[in-house]
């Protein structure tokens, strides 16, 4: 593992927007991968029920199991990338595995085959995510981490928006069915793999120009599901993220709220969803840049505070005129995403980056299921006002924990 890492200087040389080649290329990879994924994902429930005759309970079971396993895989793949000191291969393999699995939807003939294909698609996501996030941190200056993750998340959301639009246009075309859309979704995925293969270079863990210990000289410890190798600041940050995500249920509840309480026409729901994706992209890009200038914690606190205010607004809103601005305001909470990932890279040693991103993504992914269950139960038992107020209160609790925990961690450090 002492061989030279190819493209060391080239992958960090400033490109368009002042970002390095690796960061720019990985952003394009995410754009085309999400374009491919979102061409398939919204159609999967319809394909299963209308074409293959599957039941909703079976779909929900496999989806939940796939997310659970993918979350654990993120910890392992992140640790493994630290251990072998290579990240690109894991990212490339994960993207390819997901793409092949999604393409199989075009030829499946039974519900279990479709669900296995989608299960394997999520496994690919679990393999690639942590090594890719660590590779971004390896490929940029510490002062530009926020902007790098902001660009990456913005491209991710734009890809999702483009994929949903492409699926709608294709289905509106005469003679185009679900299987055709699934097959065509392989084209943008192939572009993503080509860009990753040719445009991304393996990187050492040290940020350019910094005297950090690289992954070559500080091997990762044996894999253990424990936070003991990390300092108190990172552990408290994960605790705050856990508390916030516990009240951060699926955005599908927002659409349902707008439809029921706002009486928004069903034909306008996709437009509302599209506006949210556009604001998400802007918020991630600007949030990352602001975190480089003013600090990660301030931007994260601002994002969570916006979330709390938006959820209070959703609890109180009673007409359609409220929901359009509320969705715009809510979208700006996503400034937290890019700042949060940059903060992970800031708080952990270089040789543990992959493991740290695996743990961070695991906490976020695994908390989404109980968050949505809590939201649904509160909605049913006490009404929608209590459900959204609970989300607002957990966000405020996370703000308090992050602010207080950060000061405690600094004193310990």
Q: What's the shape?
A: globular
Q: Residue-averaged pLDDT, rounded? A: 83
Largest sheet: none
What is Rg?
Answer: 21 Å
Element-level helix/strand string: HHHHHHHHHHHHHHHH
Our measurement of the CA-to-CA distance between the termini, rounded to an integer number of angstroms, reads: 32 Å
State the helicity in percent bands.
over 70%
Describe this structure in words.
The protein is mostly helical. The protein has 2 domains: 16-199, Up-down Bundle (Growth Hormone, Chain: A), CATH 1.20.1250.20; 232-412, MFS general substrate transporter like domains (Growth Hormone, Chain: A). It has helices spanning 21-40, 44-51, 56-84, 88-103, 111-138, 145-172, 178-184, 186-199, 232-246, 252-260, 269-294, 296-316, 320-331, 335-347, 353-382, 384-412. α9 runs antiparallel to α16 (384-412).
Briefly summarize what is shown:
With 413 residues, the chain is mostly helical. It folds into two domains: 16-199, Growth Hormone, Chain: A (Up-down Bundle); 232-412, MFS general substrate transporter like domains (Growth Hormone, Chain: A). The protein contains 16 helices and no strands.
Q: Which keywords apply here?
A:
413 residues; 74% helix; mainly alpha; 16 helices; Growth Hormone, Chain: A; globular; disordered N terminus
